[in-house]
Design a protein that fits this description.
The protein has 136 residues and is an alpha+beta fold. It has four helices and five strands; from the N terminus they run ααβαββββα. Helix content is 29%, strand content 40%. The chain has a five-stranded mixed sheet with strand order 1-5-4-3-2. Strand 4 and strand 5 form a beta hairpin. One of its GO terms (biological process) is polyketide metabolic process.
């Protein structure tokens, strides 16, 4: 397993699953851009990553990620994950209902040295809303 793959796996265990945002300054560049983040008045950089993780933990509990596949190409790393969680806060304008969901996601990150400079994602948000019973 490469150092970059270990970093990605560690980010999910220590940050996204727990909500601990203290590592943000060490794992992303000062100009980090999350192209998949919801529009927010948060500048690029570690603050943007902290805002995303904080938001997720304000609307979801029991967050778990299983990294299924990892592909490397130069300064980029792509990975497929299965994410599961329970909705406990307002999500996409829908009230909390305490139900769980499980979806597949594809993520791509670009590294600058040993830190992440950019992130893109393709998530099945529609599938999550269906599983939560918000839409048919």
């Amino acid at each position: 397993m490469s150092q970059r793959e270990q970093l990605i796996r560690g980010i999910y265990r220590t940050m996204f699953e727990t909500g601990d945002v203290t590592l943000a300054d060490r794992i992303v560049t000062p100009g980090f851009v999350d192209h998949a983040a919801p529009p927010a008045p948060v500048p690029a950089g570690p603050d943007q990553l902290r805002a995303v993780v904080t938001y997720l933990h304000s609307v979801l509990t029991d967050i778990r990620y299983e990294i299924e596949d990892v592909l490397h190409d130069g300064d980029r790393l792509a990975y497929r994950t299965t994410m599961s969680a329970t909705q406990t806060g307002e999500l996409f304008g829908f009230p909390p209902n305490g139900r769980g969901f499980c979806t597949t996601q594809i993520h791509i990150v670009r590294f600058d040295g040993d830190r992440i400079a950019e992130h893109w994602a393709c998530r099945d948000d529609l599938g999550a809303l269906r599983q939560l019973g918000h839409i048919a």
